[in-house]
Design a protein that fits this description.
6 helices, 2 strands, 184 residues, globular
């Protein structure tokens, strides 16, 4: 056997070991990725995929109404930071409502929402930034009236939104988990 043949025979097991080790690493990595993907929670299916879409009423009661009231409550408590936060949440909730229900009674629901909320939202934002309770009260009353005008336009006039007062049942206690004692 020549030196070249002997060297080739020594390299052959080494080359095989390197290739086998590489294949094992690729196999283990592939299994880890597959297990990781299986362990991740599945994405929440869209309402269209599940066939379930909450009604406008469901979304109003579960999302819009509580945020409307928490906005008022924050101002009443002088918590302007929380009022700004809830105003943003209320705007977002209305946007999601319009996205979920693009038309209502043959009309563009997002356009209807914008037409009745845009001005009161601007006024509320200005009042919150200025920490102006009187301007807030006017803008909040205007927003509440705008909501009711939309209900009238959609033939749901029986649904009347009111400006809360401190004796409102949902205002009493801290049922929404808000620390109403801190003032900002």
């Amino acid at each position: 056997m020549t030196r070249v043949d002997a060297a080739s025979q020594r390299r052959c097991p080494t080359a095989f070991a390197v290739i086998a080790t590489g294949a094992a690493v690729v196999l283990v990595a592939g299994l880890a990725i597959a297990r990781g993907a299986a362990a991740e929670p599945e994405a929440v299916p869209s309402p269209q995929a599940t066939g379930y879409l909450p009604s406008i009423s469901d979304l109003m009661i579960a999302t819009i109404q509580p945020r409307h009231e928490r906005l008022w409550r924050a101002e009443q408590d002088g918590n302007w930071s929380f009022a700004a936060y809830e105003l943003g949440n209320l705007k977002g909730a209305f946007n999601r409502l319009g996205h979920a229900h693009p038309t209502e009674d043959g009309m563009s629901f997002p356009d209807m929402i914008t037409s009745v909320t845009e001005q009161p939202f601007k006024e509320l934002s200005t009042a919150i930034q200025a920490k102006d309770g009187a301007a807030f009260a006017k803008a909040y009353t205007d927003l509440t009236g705008a909501c009711n005008s939309c209900h009238q336009a959609l033939n749901h006039g029986v649904v009347e939104i009111r400006v809360p007062d401190r004796t409102s049942r949902s205002y009493l206690g801290s049922d929404l988990g808000i620390d109403s004692t801190s003032r900002h």
